[in-house]
Amino acid sequence: MNRQSLYWFSQTCGWFFYTLLIGFYTQIILGFKITPESAFSLFLIFVLGIFFSHLYRLLILKLKLKDLKPLQLTPILLLLCLVFASVFAITQAFVEYIVFNVSFLMDYLMSATMLTNIVSINFVFIVWSLIYFLIHYIKNYRLSEIENLRWQASVVEIELNKLKSQLNPHFIFNSMNSIRALVDEDPSKSKEAITQLSNILRNTLLMGKKRLIPFSEEMLLVKDYLNLETTRFEERLTTKYDIDATALDYEIPPMLLQTIVENGIKHGISKLPEGGEISINAKVTDDKMQIEVINCGQLSSQKSETGFGIINTKQRLHLIFGDKASLLLTNYDSKKVLTKIILPKL
Q1: Is 3.40.50.2300 the CATH number for 186-344?
Q2: How many alpha carbons fall within 13 Å on the CB side of residue 88?
């Protein structure tokens, strides 16, 4: 049901219910029998109610009263309700005078019964106004919430794109440095490394358009990156994987794991003359994915985090998952560093 149909359905049902209440009150409470005249009066109330309340709504729209604040709106509505109730009661009296040829019209218009009728109808218009504007305010509140959520989503998307634009050049710069070191030393390996880098860049460009990607796709990127770094470090770098099959279907931000691995090599293994090992473990526990990256090296006692990549990664996790995700970087033992990431399943 569209809004227009819902409006007329509500109008019809509301005034029909009000007419039934009057008929019930007249017959049951006051003890009057329903006569053709009283039945016509009830029908007249029903028709005039729909007509004048719709006219009242058109006036509200014409005067743009829905744009006013409650304190400004209240006295105007009270005045309009009284005016429409008075016109309603007078119109009802004139129609009944014409149909039934009532001779005491002027006496009726000046009577206490007329005043009671106006007060009664005025109350109905006040209730009608409360319901109408309550629906309007609820609708506006919901629209405002939707707009707010859209605005927040836009802010998050802009922030994520900003972080990605900072991250990708950072990764490319490090990879190009690795290849440059191979050009004079081993041209054939440098060609192979360039091929690996082109694969990584192609995947990175495709991933950059996505907010989340399967962990399996991220692992392909990481393995290409580690193969590229193994070419550079040779025997100084060894890799180890322990990946739970159930973890491959989880979704993570693009280049999340690659950034952690790159950080471990740059700030850990590359600074050790003997090099070292980097191991990647992933498992699922209680519907949460746990990723561990362990690399040789030690964190500085003055700084628990190293590198732009870690700060970037924490920001991305917070933007996407809020407080449901966490990243911990700590010394694993006297010779290793542990990076632990916990992600929920979306």
Answers
A1: no
A2: 31
Q: Which residue has the tokens 């362990």?
A: 294
Domain spans in the chain, listed from the N-terminal domain onward: 3-147, 186-344
Count of CB atoms situated within 10 Å of the CB of 292? 18
Cβ-proximal residues to 32 (8 Å cutoff; 6+ apart), any chain: 26, 38
Q: End-to-end CA distance of the chain: give it in Å, rounded.
A: 33
Cβ atoms within 10 Å of 43's Cβ, excluding its own: 11
SS3 113: helix
Find the helix packing angle between 215-233 and 256-267, rounded to 10°. Answer: 20
Contact 210, 254 (CB under 8 A): yes
Phi then psi dihedrals of residue 266, to 5 deg: -65, -45
For residue 319, which of 184, 157, 205, 116 has the smallest C-alpha distance? 157
Tokens of 242: 């322990």
Residue-wise pLDDT for 157-167, tens only, equals: 666 565 555 54
Element (H, E) at 192: helix 187-207
Say how far apart CA 134 and CA 73 lie, in whole Å.
Answer: 13
Are the C-beta atoms of 175 and 193 separated by less than 8 Å?
A: no
CA atoms within 13 A on the CB side of 155: 7
Instruction: Name residue, tokens 């009066």.
Output: 41
Structure tokens at 324: 């449901």
pLDDT in tens, 235-267: 899 999 999 999 998 999 888 898 899 888 888
Among residues 261, 290, 289, 258, the alpha carbon closest in space to that of 277 is found at 261
pTM of the predicted model over 0.70 = no
